[in-house]
Design goal:
The complex is a heterodimer.
Chain A lengths: L26 H15 L4 H7 L1 H26 L4 H29 L6 H6 L7 H30 L4 H27 L4 H26 L8 H29 L5 H19 L3 H16 L12 H14 L2 H9 L1 H8 L6 H13 L4 H8 L2 H4 L5 H8 L1 H18 L11 H24 L20 H7 L2 H12 L4 H16 L4 H33 L1
Chain B lengths: L1 H13 L2 E12 L2 E12 L3 E5 L6 H9 L6 E6 L2 E2 L5 H6 E4 L11 H11 L6 H10 L15 H13 L5 E5 L7 H16 L3 E5 L3 H7 L2 E4 L6
Parallel strand pairs in B: 3-8, 3-9, 6-7, 7-8
Antiparallel strand pairs in B: 1-2, 1-4, 4-5
Helix pairs in contact in B: 4-5, 7-8
The chains are: A mainly alpha, B alpha/beta.
Chain lengths: 551, 225
Amino acid sequence: MSSLEAGADDFAYREASEPRALTPASPRELKRLIKDWRAGRATRNVLQAMSDAYVAVFSAVMIGAMVVNVILKAQRTIAQCTSVSCLSARAILPWAAFAAAVALALAASRLFGPVLASAAEGFWLLDAPISRAKLLRSRLIGAVLAAFLGGALVGALVAALTGSTVIEIVVWSAATALSAAASVAFAAAQQGIERHVLTRVATYVFGLLGVGALFSVVGVAAGWFSFGFSDERGLEIGLIMIGASGLVLLVSSVLAALRLGRIRRARLLSGGALVSGISGAFFALDIGLARDIVVERRAMERGHVHPRRGKGLGLEALVWREWQRLWRFPQPLLVLAGTIVVPYAADALGMSTLTPVFAALALFGATIPLLGGLRVLTRTGGLARCLPFSLARIKLASIAVPAILAGIWAVATTPAYMGFGDGAVERTVPDASLMAIATAAAGLLAAVRWTQAKGVDFGAPMVASQAGAFPPGLVTNLFRGFDVCLLTTAPLLLGLSAMWSLLIAAIAAIILLNSMDAEALRARQAEQQKLLAQQKKQREEAAAASKQRKR
Amino acid sequence: MGLEIRGRIASMAKRATILKVSGLRRAFGPNTIFDKFNLEVRTGEAIALTGRNGAGKSTLLRCLVGADRADDGSVEVCGNAMTETSPEIRRDVATVIDDLDFFPDLSVVEHLDLLARAHGIADPDEVVDDVLEEVQLVPQSGQLPGTLSSGQRRRLALATAFVRPRKLLILDEPEQRLDTEGVAWLAQRLKSERQEGLAIVFASHEPELVETVATRVIQLGAPRG
């Protein structure tokens, strides 16, 4: 009998001198007990909840069907393309997806654990005299399964969108799924022996392979070099990758399972705390906060740095510090370099009309990590208050380095707009340069807008909707940045002059960075309202006094 | 005696007014936190705000630094109307309230170096080292803020106020999370700052700090009944 099944008499006071040996509960019993508590507190079952959420379920099914339809249509259209660009993309992009899935799975695993436990589990279960390995086994299986499903989705999507055949889609989906799952299992095996060097090295290696694969697409499409393998060979390689990934998955899973009991409590809890923080941020649809949590965790992992002396005075000191911070954590530069491929790849795939949009969106994503300084200086205002400059000047100084990098990015992507792939629109150098600058401005300003976004104010008046009341910023927060991106590149999409895009970018820049700072505007508005109210009061008092005098 | 008092009054009158608060009002819905609040702080004066939790000390300080907007009244610092984003105000007022943030990837010493340089101190090494030693963060100078304990973070926050030029110092419960030794150091430091002519407004629950530093004590809110 376990202690959980003990009757009331077992806990009665005894005078016996020797302590009674208690039988600890098994992990399964504890889990069953927790499940029972949770189920006991639920007020409705899954079916009832689903019937309540039928609108959401129907919407999800409809949107899902539309997305699948679009993907299938795109697959059929692109499958007919037999140009060098299309063939190179079809042969190499699944490789890039494969490498990216592995790199992403390894990076996420290293960040979260991958095996983790919540604070409650840490307090109530991990200290209990039970087998930690048995308790954590389901966590390991869950993480590996999640990676498998994610990998399958990415692999299938990329293979389908490059016009691969059904069999190729299946093979690449399986290979990417198994490799992602194997990566998580490998990271878990490393977590068990408290070593992360191999995981870190593998992350960078596969990340670079992914970027290299993307560059290869461009190179082949440009005719700089060619790969001699046929479609059949690609399929064979895919099958080999399935075998190799499966083997790594098997070995790593066994090792990880054997080492589960050795993972330190602190390590398990830190991953759990990170997940709970991020999930809290996502529940509030505050993606900026989720990113802040991850950035803070990375900095904490590093913990200590070799201090560097600053340079310059005034705003110059702030700009120099931005450079130094970037050199200290240079990973975002690699991502930025990787996005240079996007306009070339889009052009190579015959999507030259959409190239500015894809490129701006890619730059938007890559620039956000470069704007860490702006984020810190705008999220609470406390640090900015310590600096003797207006907010507009602080913002300008904070984005100086990312703006220079965006400028370099624009120069590097200009050839993509000059007519790169087969059948692409050919443009003169000045036109292509203007397009590249407009695209870079769109990406940079979108990132600035996203970075400056304040969290949702749940204290503000709610907006009524059919799905219940919600704060006004909740939904718009999701589209922050994307709006600037699409608005700025819209003229390019419509075939208008790039000058229109630059004009929109200039207006956006004035609103986001310059004197039209929302906070200052609100302050000015409040001050004016206060003055008006005072004047009105004075007028009323004067009128009342004159009335009295007349009487 | 009469001459001494007259002399003191004359020297008070000579001292420049750093902070002038007139008719300040702040209410949250039906709850009025403070109303018609007036205050004038001159150089070399230290005002301690005391009172029970929820009396409005932090709200008042937030209004004084511009982090919160008062419903009525005005705040002037060195003759300039308070606007949080005004560079003049930011140059003159050093604040340590609860919203201070740090760059996650800049070390302790780099934060202080940046602030000193931003305020125009050309060779900040000496002042940064002095402040670091004073707040006892020399061993942590290369650490990133995320790895500091809550007490060390508080010391870093205080250091950000001491490493830069200032005319007015506004502190919200600066003794928070400091050990006994830290509170004693802070009391002496603030006292000497006041004696050197700095104007200070601070909220505190620490009698030792209030007694050592304050030239005037303002009790906010009604006592708990």
